[in-house]
Description:
Keywords: DNA-binding, Transcription, Transcription regulation. With 202 residues, the protein is α+β, with helices and mostly antiparallel strands.
Amino acid sequence: MENQLSVSPQLLAQLYEFSTVKNYSSGELILDENASIRSIPIVTKGSIKVMRTEEDGREILLYYIKAGESCVMSFLGGLHGETSKVKAEVEEDAEILFLPTDKVTSLIKTNPEWLDYIFKMYHKRFEELLDMINELTFRKVDDRLINLLHKKSELTGSKIITATHEQLANELGTARVVVSRILKTFEEDHKLQLGRNRIELL
């Protein structure tokens, strides 16, 4: 088994022993808002994006979960018996371990390395959420859009991004027409090339 989690072989073996392993294709929903949380997702291959829906129906991208990482929002909800406050969707084809919440608790009590892993995830997500707040507050939509495109490129290791203007708008919490206009400007400035449901960074 490939170790993407940066944990010891002993802890990795326990995670695989206690978890259910599932494979998902890009675009599949693995957790919806208000759903019960009975297990914690740990990504071993691929990536997923975590989003939240605002009262007006707009969706805001909170952060990406890459191989070797988990979702701290699921930790919180699962440990306290709460429903999910976010939804998680597969960004690129993924293999995910689903660790039952009771095993999450027992590992916290018996394995300091697992607790350290959770703290590291909390720290990483906290910094990412601060960055997101900073972007929403101080950065213009065009800056946020080009930053999002580069993040997607880094995730997949490719300069070609497969996404519709509507999907990008949802992740930024803005209107599709705004994204389309900005992308056209970027194309005219030779920053990227537009295709059908694809964008190539130049």
